[in-house]
Amino acid sequence: MNNLKAKTSHLKVKEIRQHEALTYIAAHKFPDLTEQESLLGTVELWKNYRLFMQDGFVLRGNEKDYRGKYLEPFYKNPKWWAGIYDGSKIVGTEYFTFRGRRMFSGFLFADSKEIAQELSTQLYELAKITLPKLDTVESLHFTNVDEYDISFREEVGYRAWSWIDEKDKIRELQDVRISFMKKVREEWEEKNNDKV
Asked: Which one of 51, 111, 126, 139 has the fewest CB atoms closer than 10 angstroms to its CB?
């Protein structure tokens, strides 16, 4: 992890506007398409992600089951975007919002796994300043959308507590796992203190 820190410690996270985030994602995710086509594809992905947040679920959890619209409180405004910069160049972005003592972050894209980890880490540290009583950060991992496997989120403190398996309706060849991830502040900080 120290080697990672040396490579990414100069990067800085700041709040950005949604159009900046979606423009970065479009260029990053669809580099072979025209600017207009890549933006349309990104907006479609974003709309689908947001619609998923309104769905009702029956989730079988590690500790507790849940039935209902689990993510709906995070769907409502306000919503924000964080960008991570190398000087003046954006090299990653992630959506986030707060509800009570919880934060949701997701739809993360970055130039590399190390940058994505740095963005996630800095966003978490800034969230603790913004919301000192923050106790849980929620996220999702889609095997057909996310750029990095689920171990990426686990390395920065998340654990999957439930998941849904379904068919990819667009590509139809691929099974999709949607993992509901949770980072509990108390557990993460205890784990980090044990390392010191």
From this structure: 51
